[in-house]
């Protein structure tokens, strides 16, 4: 069965370049995929902040849809969506009654057996083994891999990498030719969903991340989450205002970085959509 | 033919006020097999006891039932009286008419009836009693002590000073254990080496102590008083008799960059090395994993250098055998490294060290000669942070228990630092201060009040490096959980105290129990703290749980006194109430089918299956054998045996069934 | 005796019922507060919230529900990931927020944060997905913070990051239905 | 005449026997119906002995030893407990009324508890009446065994 892809809202809107680059590399490595048809929003932070049931039901509907399509695996590039889906899946696993209720709510059968993968897992599984031979333009910069919160935490739900000092992205970036820097803010929070409502907090937290990356000599930040990207890239002006420092370090999605190393046109990877220009 | 005497006691009026003692005596005299029956005011008094003795002699009694107070009170008294009259003491049983009858029931017919029932029950039991002889096992008066830390040293010296032979086996090239690594010791701040070294030397010189270093227990067989120990003495690659300990070889060895275990990796050593200047024995060993000769086949520089021609590169491990009567386990503990903790950098930062590493920095014999300098660049830290419970009391990432010693050594470390770096700032992040001990609380208060160590109640969430500083993110819970950030030059983690490496392997070898953390289990948490479940094997020091030096030494002396007690006789007398398998000699008759259920049931590993051979030496069957040295008489095996082949002397099925029948068929 | 039998379940008991987490496990080490990225902005730090829950004191419980802290929590999971007792504070925060929200005890300072969450959910309710312009429009109406980020939207538009019209989905009814069913 | 049940107590020497002694030294009263049989440890108590007691006419049985972890022999009472589970099923299976066997832990310091256990058990067995059905049951499984 082709891989089911759940894009989520950001990847069709403000972070569409992430989706563009994901598709580019899936195509390059000839990984068959289809989108989850008629998908809905995962509910993000808002749902579990205000309404517990909705917070579980929205991801449940997505899982049910993917299963209806017959997929065994679903790729969720957005870290926030990934986190929501995984956490709902675990809750349903532990609570069969809840699973029954949710199945009824979404009006679809729910097996809940589908494997939910984040972008790093798909890359490690299906791309890394063939990556070396396809590299055209090895990256030649120092990269700070930024994992953020939602990709690695909580460890007992997601458990795919070391919580406090994850390595998977660093390993991939190294294959691409870049030098991953050892730095301290790999998993600190960027401010996440407060980008609109508490921009000051986002600016401070994201600022700390940029400072640490730059001080450890990074020339680019590599991310795998649209929220992190939005905060670190689109909020750059606010960050500079808050910290009183100038930063020209670009923020690149891991999939874009892979695309760059494969020699794919920057436009196709959506690099032109960034607020902070990517000129490395 | 049973010839039983029954003796009913009034206990003044304690019994007779509610029980009609005369009637009990009358009824008893009618019981089958009862030849003599009498009641008396005070059975335990001299005239009372004489009454029994005379009756035994006069009527040639072969069984006695005393109906009086609890057997827990006077069973020994009456059994002794019987023995004095020439009757086997185990032919005497006690019916408890006081604690179980007169004191708990009202006066009346039913109460007297109960008393009669109890007497009948014991009369029936006695009919089924057999004379028993106390079990004696010979005792080899030589002790094996495993582990040469302060615990093992103390136990060895105590036993040896009592005049017994001791074999002291140490895994490392030198004795001394962790105490030899310490700088100064709480709560007095006296120098650890100064108080330890004389004892180490005494061990080496003691005529009763055979010290075997660089060695481990290979196997232990046998039982209390009669163990056979095999010791593997690893090849040191030198002839210890010829070596003078001049140390010349160590200066010539080209492999100089090996992290020194003694200095906790903060200094280096060579492949042929004496672990530290005060080592006992003060002679080198060659670390085969690091020596070029062993890894690549060439070098032999040490061999050429040695003026005494003591190097033996072809030396092999030796197996030594000893008969010993008791074993003391004193194998100590270990501390976790800093890589134990993900949020503290997975061991990535050089200047985040363990408490034990700090000891080496603070020690005058250490790599910095006692100056507190940080490992990365040798700078004297201006701000130092101590983190308590780094891995202890942490079910999520570490261990759930409290390591007990760290609160104290943190206070000590902070004080030592402040004494050496007057302008420095010392911070301690802690959750609770556990300083229960004589002068311990006072010691901690001194650190806070006099040396101005800043104690902050809160746990550290994270440590990371920025611009050559270690950023320590903690919180002050006494300020409502206010986050606190300290940019420190050095961080000392009080990492958890854990069991010594391969502790469980040793426990399995000697058959003692251990807890889920691989610390050895004492026989009773309060009343048998130095005994183990296996008779003849004792515990000393931190192999049982993390503990400080005073406790270790107290426990070692306790274990030693148990050993000395055991050695005070050449034979060991034990209560004969132990399990036996119904075997009859030859050709062996037994109903035992060799199923081994009893073997697994026995909590003391007292049962083995053994081959039974006919006269020609052919194995005819396998049957259980109870080792009288190990059996404690709990009877668990009896309940497990389906073929009813094993029984407890004194509590045989026959005896108990007789009791039950007698109780219930009173008409 | 009867008093204790008839007493109302405490907030911590209610939280335990929803989340299955017992606050009694918290031994007040403060590690959660030490690592929380927003502890300094909070009125009560995460560990203090845990302590207040432990007291079962109705006054403290009221303070928690009316606190700003519960709304400031980013659900970054840092505390949970480092808590030595593995206490899932983010889930507790969720439960507290939902309670404060349904009981209308929301801290006035949290208005903007809630407005954002509400706008977000509204967007899902009406379009099944997040419609960013719609979200921002609703948010601005709710907060009257009309000038916020005025320069951001045109730039996003230029970079092709904004959809002018909401995406259409077929199962919209199904999704909106989820909101009704979970009332 | 009132029914006076016969109750046999199987107790360990170290905890419950000593506990029952303490009941005496404290002069706490309890019904006269109980007779104590002393064992080295509850681990020794073979459950066939329970059957024997019923067979001989007991109306109820008490089995009592040290609290877990306090066993004089370290694990004896865990064995007793585990075996108790198995025998419980067995006893149930052969049709013996489980309510007639009381299992408890009484330590050497729990004199009052011993009196309580005896009083409760006697009360319960009085309600249940004489165990006359036992002989029918035992006949049926004697037959089965042969
Ligand atoms: C950082 C730190 C600071 C401390 N400061 C103090 C202090 O100031 N005051 C104080 O009272 N206490 C202090 N202590 C505690 C003190 O170190 C211990 O109480 C003491 O070392 C325990 O002695 P031991 O003999 O039980 O164990 P150990 O010292 O661990 O000795 C055990 C010995 O057994 C050997 N061994 C292990 N396994 C085997 C085996 N299988 N066969 C043969 N030999 C084996 C080991 O090599 C070792 O030599 C401190 C501890 C630490 C970690
Ligand atoms: C409230 C409380 C609760 C406790 N709970 C526990 C617990 O749960 N677990 C635990 O492990 N420990 C507990 N302990 C501690 C425990 O009681 C002690 O560890 C233990 O009693 C110490 O025994 P000891 O023999 O050293 O002293 P003591 O019990 O004090 O015995 C000393 C004896 O010496 C006699 N004596 C005194 N002077 C003289 C003299 N000049 N000549 C002759 N005889 C003399 C005294 O009369 C006394 O009988 C508790 C203590 C207290 C106060
Ligand atoms: S033997 Fe026991 S019951 Fe008799 S007088 Fe002595 S103490 Fe009292
Ligand atoms: S082996 Fe030789 S050189 Fe080395 S210490 Fe011994 S005597 Fe000296
Ligand atoms: S033979 Fe080995 S121990 Fe001797 S000097 Fe060479 S490397 Fe060192
Ligand atoms: S002794 Fe102190 S520092 Fe060590 S684990 Fe116990 S409480 Fe923590
Ligand atoms: S009586 Fe207890 S100790 Fe002795 S052999 Fe049987 S089970 Fe083992
Ligand atoms: S004594 Fe009984 S339990 Fe033990 S081996 Fe023989 S038959 Fe089996
Ligand atoms: S980290 Fe966990 S145990 Fe510590 S205060 Fe926070 S919730 Fe409580
Ligand atoms: S989840 Fe909330 S409380 Fe926990 S660390 Fe993150 S922001 Fe703080």
Globally, the shape of chain A reads globular
What's the pLDDT, averaged over the residues of chain A?
90
Biggest interface, CB < 8 A: A-C, 55 and 59 residues
Q: Could you give the distance between the termini of chain C?
A: 37 Å
Describe this structure in words.
The complex is a heterotetramer of chains A (280), B (667), C (183) and D (146). The radius of gyration of chain A is 18 Å and the shape is globular. Chain A has 280 residues and is of the alpha/beta class. Chain A has helices at residues 8-12, 16-28, 44-50, 52-68, 79-94, 96-106, 119-134, 155-158, 168-175, 199-215, 226-234, 236-243, 254-262, and strands spanning 3-5, 33-35, 73-75, 115-117, 142-145, 179-180, 220-223, 251-253. The model of chain A has no long low-confidence stretch (mean pLDDT 90). Chain A contains 13 helices and eight strands. By secondary structure, chain B is of the alpha/beta class. Chain B has 18 helices and 36 strands. In chain B, helix 1 (21-29) packs parallel to helix 5 (109-127). By secondary structure, chain C is mainly α. In chain C, 58% of the residues lie in helices and 0% in strands. The radius of gyration of chain C is 20 Å and the shape is globular. Chain D has 146 residues and is α/β, with parallel strands linked by helices. Chain D has a single domain (7-141), classed as Rossmann fold (3-Layer(aba) Sandwich), CATH 3.40.50. Chain D contains five helices and four strands, in the order E-H-E-H-E-H-E-H-H. The model of chain D has no long low-confidence stretch (mean pLDDT 83). The B-C interface holds B 343, 393-398, 431, 457-462, 473-477, 480-484 and C 27-36, 39-40, 44-48, 78, 82-86. Bound molecules: flavin-adenine dinucleotide (2 copies) and iron/sulfur cluster (8 copies). One iron/sulfur cluster (SF4) is lined by residues 26-32, 47, 50, 83-85, 87, 89 of chain C. One iron/sulfur cluster (SF4) binds next to helix 17 of chain B.
């Amino acid at each position: 069965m082709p891989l089911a892809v759940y894009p989520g809202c950001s990847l069709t809107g403000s972070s569409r370049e992430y989706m563009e680059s994901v598709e580019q590399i899936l195509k390059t490595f000839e990984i068959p995929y289809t989108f989850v048809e008629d998908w809905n929003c995962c509910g993000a932070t808002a749902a579990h902040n205000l309404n517990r049931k909705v917070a579980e039901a929205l991801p449940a509907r997505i899982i049910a849809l993917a299963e209806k399509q017959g997929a065994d695996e679903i790729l969720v590039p957005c870290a926030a969506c990934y986190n929501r889906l995984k956490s709902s899946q675990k809750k349903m696993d532990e609570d069969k009654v809840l699973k029954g209720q949710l199945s009824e709510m979404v009006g679809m059968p729910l097996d809940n057996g589908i494997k939910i993968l984040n972008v790093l897992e798909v890359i490690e599984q299906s791309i890394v083994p063939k990556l070396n031979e396809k590299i055209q333009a090895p990256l030649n910069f120092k990269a700070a891999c930024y994992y953020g919160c939602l990709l690695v935490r909580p460890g007992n739900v997601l458990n795919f990498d070391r919580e406090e000092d994850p390595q998977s992205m660093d390993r991939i970036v190294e294959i691409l030719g870049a030098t991953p820097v050892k730095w301290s803010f790999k998993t600190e929070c960027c401010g996440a969903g407060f980008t609109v409502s508490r921009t000051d907090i986002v600016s401070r937290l994201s600022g700390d991340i940029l400072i640490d990356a730059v001080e450890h000599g990074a020339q680019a930040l590599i991310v795998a989450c649209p929220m992190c990207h939005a905060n670190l890239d689109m909020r750059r002006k606010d960050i500079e205002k808050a910290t009183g420092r100038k930063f020209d370090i670009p923020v690149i999605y891991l999939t874009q970085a892979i695309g760059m190393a494969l020699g794919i046109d920057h436009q196709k990877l959506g690099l032109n959509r960034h607020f902070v220009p990517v000129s490395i | 033919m049973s010839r039983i005497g029954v003796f009913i006691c009034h206990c003044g009026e304690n019994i007779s006020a509610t029980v009609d003692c005369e009637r009990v005596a009358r009824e008893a005299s009618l019981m089958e097999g009862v030849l003599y029956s009498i009641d008396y005011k005070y059975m335990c008094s001299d005239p009372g006891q004489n009454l029994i003795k005379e009756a035994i002699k006069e009527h040639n009694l072969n069984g006695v039932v005393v109906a009086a107070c609890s057997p827990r009170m006077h069973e020994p008294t009456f059994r002794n009286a019987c023995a004095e009259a020439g009757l086997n003491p185990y032919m005497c049983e006690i019916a408890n008419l006081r604690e179980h009858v007169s004191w708990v029931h009202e006066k009346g017919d039913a109460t007297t009836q109960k008393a009669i029932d109890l007497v009948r029950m014991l009369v029936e039991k006695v009919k089924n009693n057999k004379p028993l002889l106390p079990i004696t096992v010979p005792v080899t008066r030589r002790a094996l002590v495993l582990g040469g830390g302060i615990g093992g040293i103390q136990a060895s010296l105590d036993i040896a000073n009592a005049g017994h032979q001791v074999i002291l086996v140490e895994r490392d090239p030198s004795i001394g254990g962790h105490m030899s690594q310490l700088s100064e010791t709480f709560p007095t701040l006296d120098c650890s080496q100064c108080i330890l070294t004389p004892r180490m030397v005494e061990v080496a010189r003691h005529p009763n102590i055979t010290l075997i270093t660089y060695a481990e227990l290979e196997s232990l067989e046998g039982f209390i008083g009669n163990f056979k120990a095999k010791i593997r003495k690893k090849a040191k690659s030198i002839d210890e008799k010829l070596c003078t300990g001049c140390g010349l070889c160590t200066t010539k060895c080209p492999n100089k960059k090996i992290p020194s275990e003694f200095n906790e990796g903060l200094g280096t050593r060579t492949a042929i090395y004496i672990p530290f200047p005060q080592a006992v024995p003060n002679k080198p060993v060659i670390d085969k994993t690091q020596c070029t000769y062993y890894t690549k086949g060439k070098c032999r520089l040490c061999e050429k250098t040695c003026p005494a021609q003591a190097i033996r590169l072809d030396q092999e491990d030796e197996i030594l055998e000893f008969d010993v009567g008791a074993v003391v386990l004193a194998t100590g503990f270990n501390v976790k490294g800093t890589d134990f903790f993900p949020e503290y950098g997975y061991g990535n930062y050089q200047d985040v060290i363990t408490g034990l590493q700090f000891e080496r920095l603070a020690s005058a014999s250490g790599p910095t000669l006692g100056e507190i300098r940080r490992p990365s660049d040798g700078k004297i830290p201006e701000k130092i942070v101590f983190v308590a419970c780094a891995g202890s009391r942490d079910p999520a990432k570490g261990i759930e228990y409290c390591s007990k010693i760290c609160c104290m050594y943190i206070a000590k470390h902070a004080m030592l630092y402040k004494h050496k770096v007057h302008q420095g700032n010392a911070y301690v992040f802690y959750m609770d201060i556990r300083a229960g001990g004589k002068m311990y609380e006072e010691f901690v208060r001194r650190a806070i009040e006099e040396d101005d160590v800043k104690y902050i109640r809160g746990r550290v969430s994270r440590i990371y490096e920025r611009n050559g500083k270690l950023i320590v993110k903690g919180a002050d819970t006494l300020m409502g959980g206010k986050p606190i950030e300290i940019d420190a030059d050095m961080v000392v983690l009080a990492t958890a105290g854990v069991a010594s490496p391969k502790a469980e392997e040793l426990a399995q070898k000697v058959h003692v129990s251990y807890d889920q953390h691989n610390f050895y289990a004492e026989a009773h948490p309060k009343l048998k703290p130095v005994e183990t479940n296996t008779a003849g094997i004792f515990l000393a020091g931190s192999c049982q749980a993390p503990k400080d030096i005073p406790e270790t030494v107290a426990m070692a002396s306790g274990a030693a006194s148990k050993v000395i007690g055991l050695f005070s006789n050449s034979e060991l007398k034990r209560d004969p109430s132990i399990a036996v398998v119904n075997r009859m000699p030859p050709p062996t008759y037994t109903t035992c089918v060799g199923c081994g259920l009893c073997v697994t049931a026995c909590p003391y590993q007292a049962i083995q299956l053994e081959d039974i051979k006919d006269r020609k030496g052919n194995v005819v069957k396998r049957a259980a054998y109870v080792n009288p040295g190990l059996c404690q008489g709990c009877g668990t095996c009896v309940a497990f045996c389906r073929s009813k082949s094993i029984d407890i002397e004194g509590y045989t099925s026959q005896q108990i069934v007789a009791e039950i029948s007698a109780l219930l068929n009173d008409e | 005796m009867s008093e204790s039998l008839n007493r109302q379940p405490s907030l911590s008991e209610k939280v335990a019922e929803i989340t299955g987490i017992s606050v009694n496990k918290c031994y007040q080490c403060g590690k959660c507060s030490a690592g929380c990225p927003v502890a300094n902005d909070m009125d009560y730090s995460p560990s203090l919230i845990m302590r207040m829950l432990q007291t079962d004191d109705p006054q403290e419980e009221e303070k928690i529900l009316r606190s700003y802290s519960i709304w400031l929590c980013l659900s970054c999971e840092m505390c949970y990931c480092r808590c030595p007792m593995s206490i899932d504070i983010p889930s507790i925060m969720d439960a507290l927020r939902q309670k404060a929200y349904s009981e209308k005890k929301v801290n006035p300072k949290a208005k903007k944060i809630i407005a954002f969450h509400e706008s977000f959910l509204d967007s899902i309710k009406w379009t099944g997905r997040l419609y960013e312009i719609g979200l921002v429009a609703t948010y601005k109406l709710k907060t009257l913070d009309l000038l916020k980020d005025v320069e951001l939207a045109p730039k996003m538009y230029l970079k092709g990051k904004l959809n002018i019209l909401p995406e259409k989905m077929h199962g919209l009814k199904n999704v909106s239905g989820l909101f009704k069913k979970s009332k | 005449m009132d029914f006076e049940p016969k109750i046999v107590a199987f107790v360990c020497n170290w905890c419950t026997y000593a506990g029952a002694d303490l009941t005496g030294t404290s002069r706490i009263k309890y019904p006269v119906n109980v007779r104590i049989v002393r064992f080295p440890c509850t681990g020794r108590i073979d459950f066939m002995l329970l059957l024997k007691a019923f067979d001989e006419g007991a109306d109820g049985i008490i089995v009592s030893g040290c609290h877990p972890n306090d066993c004089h022999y370290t694990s004896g009472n865990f064995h007793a407990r585990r075996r108790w589970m198995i025998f419980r099923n067995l006893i149930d299976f052969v049709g013996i009324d489980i309510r007639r066997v009381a299992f408890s832990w009484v330590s050497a310091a729990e004199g009052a508890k011993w009196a309580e256990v005896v009083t409760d058990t006697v009360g319960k067995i009085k309600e249940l009446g004489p165990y006359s059905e036992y002989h029918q049951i035992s006949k049926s499984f004697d037959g089965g065994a042969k």
